[in-house]
Structure formats: structure tokens, C-alpha cells
Amino acid sequence: MPSPRRNVEGRPLGTSASSSSSSPGSPAHGGGGGSRFEFQSLLSSRAPVADPTCARLRASESPVHRRGSFPLTGAGPSQAPPPPLPEEDRMDLNPSFLGIALRSLLAIDLWLSKKLGVCAGESSSWGSVRPLMKLLEISGHGIPWLLGTLYCLSRSDSWAGREVLMNLLFALLLDVLLVALLKGLVRRRRPAHNQMDMFVTLSVDKYSFPSGHATRAALVSRFILNHLVLAIPLRVLVVLWAFILGLSRVMLGRHNVTDVAFGFFQGYMQYSIVDYCWLSPHNAPVLFVLWNQQ
Fold first, then answer.
1. Residue 29: which of 19, 41, 44 has the closest Cα?
2. How many CB atoms lie within 10 A of CB 56?
3. d(Cα 294, Cα 199) in Å, to the nearest integer?
4. What share of the chain in percent tops pLDDT 70?
5. How much is the pTM?
6. Most Cβ neighbours (<10 Å): which of 77, 160, 163, 215?
7. Which of 29, 193, 255, 282 is catalytic?
């Protein structure tokens, strides 16, 4: 026997409307089955259509999205990450041993230089000795040494004396050139307590490293001790002059301790260059011939 055809709601087509309307589960009688169907249809009709624009608006209004805790797909181009900090603004959390040693040495150098600057001003603890220190400063300046060497060279009448003086002039010119070159490369400022009242300063003299007086003192003292026959007291006096001149640079506040220490080392090595390139009538006859004609 064929089964009766059913409608969309699952009822047989052969049943009457009265029986269906009078059934206890119909909506007319307030049955639970009809209410359940109406509730499901209401939910399906109120379900929103997937709109990407609305989804993006609701996502942008979310406090979690405003805090930027996670990116949303389809929410537009993501913001670019912040640029990295430059090298000087970064904190070096793992400094090397060499960096720590250099910083410690620099701190000790500045502290010791300030402590030894007892003649930096008239109001300093040793301010009354400042004129004597400035006189000692002039004794190691390059201009008096250059002018004195040229004068002695013009008055000399022996080949041996001219040879020594010619090489002393060459050493002084080399010292001025190398010190100016190194100061221009390093460009270390003079101590803060220094008073720029030096004798005949040039543009490069505003820099501190190395000390030109210290290089000249070491160079000249080694030159004199090797090429002049002096008694022992005079030799000791030459060494004391070089040492006190270097110390006066720190006491006047002109230089730091490391400037003077490196200046002594540079002046000592500069003499080795002069000794290696020693000028004589045999290897530089033109200079001596020109000087004799003058």
C-alpha cells in the first residue's frame, strides 16, 4: 500500500485542516511543538548576514584590538614597527673588558688631573706659584726653541755645530707637525678648569691630546743628552727640567695626566726618527751648501 504524501511540515496530505488545527500540538492550542518551530524560525530570521565591514567596525571598537594585543585579518594594512634606536642611544648590557678598563682609566685620569690642577687659577690652593709655572711654560714652547735654533745656526762657524743644529731644527719641525696632526685627529678638549691664557696659541692648541710641551721636553732632553757633552749635574738638570715641565702642564690645568704621559712617550720615539734620518753633509749636502752660501 503506498504511503500517503506528506506536506512540507511533515503532515499527511490526506488529513483535514480541522483535525490539524484541533490537534493538541498545534499552535492554536499553544502546544510546545509549534512554539519550538516558531522560536527556531525566529532565530534563523534574525541571524545577521556575514558583513566584513561591520565585522571590522566591531573589531576596531573592541578594547582588546585598541590595545594592539593581536592583529586582525582584513583590518587594513598593519602599522610598521618602530625604527631601531641609534647606536649611541642603546644601553650596552654586556660591555667588554676592554671598554670597562678604558672607562675606568678615563675616570681616574680626569679625577687625578683635577686634583693636581693646583695652579689652574689665582684662587687655587697654589695660585701664588702660577706666574712661575707660566714662565716654565714659555721655556718649553715651540716658538722660542725654533727661533733660538735658527739664531744659533746662523752664528755657528763649524761643520759639526751646524750639523747638530740642523738636526735639532729638523726635530723641532717634525715635533710641531706630528703633534698638530695628532691633535687634529683626536680632538680631545682641554680640562674644564683650564684658562686659555697660554703664550702664542694656534687654532690646534684648543685640543689637549697629546701635550706638545711634553713631547718637546722629551725630544729636546734626549737630543741634548746624546749630542752634547755635559757634566752629570747638568744632565740631571736637563732631566728635571723635562719632568717638571710636564708636571706643570697638569698643575696649570692645561692638560690631563694621560696627555702628558703620552707626550713623553711620543717625544722619546720622535728622537728615534730623527736619529734614523740624521742629516749630514754626506746624505744631505744640498742643505749644508745652501746654508754656507747664505
1. 19
2. 16
3. 31
4. 66
5. 0.65
6. 215
7. 255
Going by C-alpha positions, the residue among 220, 265, 273, 211 that lies closest to residue 242 is 220
Q: Is the pLDDT of residue 54 over 90?
A: no
CA 17 and chain centroid, separation = 97
95 Cβ neighbours under 8 A, 6+ residues apart = none
* 213 among known catalytic residues: yes
Average pLDDT rounded to a whole number, residues 266-288: 87
Whether pLDDT at 37 is above 60: no
Percent of the chain with pLDDT over 90: 34
pLDDT grade, residue 223 (50/70/90)? very high
From CA 208, how far away is CA 230, in angstroms rounded? 33
Q: Hunting for cell 592583529 — which residue is that?
A: 71
DSSP code of residue 117: -
Identify the residue whose cell numbers are 561591520.
54
**CA–CA distance from 207 to each of 14, 112, 120, 181, 184 (Å)?**
115, 19, 17, 11, 8
Q: Give Cα 125 to chain centroid, integer Å.
A: 35
Tell me which residue has cell 686634583.
115
Q: What is the pLDDT of residue 69?
A: 47
Catalytic residue among 141, 213, 227, 282: 213
